[in-house]
Amino acid sequence: MKKHFYSILLCFLAFGFYQCKGQTETESEPYTYKSGSFDGIGKFYKGREIAHVMGYQGIGWLERPEREKEENTSRLIENMNIQPGDSIADIGAGSGYHVFKMAPLAGNGLVYAVDIQPEMLSEIEKKKKSSGQGNVRIIKGSEKSVNLPQNSVDKILMVDVYHEFSYPVEMLESMYKALRKNGRIYLIEYKGEDASIPIKKLHKMTETQAVKEFEANGFRLKENKDNLPWQHCMVFVKK
Question: Which Pfam families match (predicted)?
Answer without folding.
Answer: Methyltransf_31
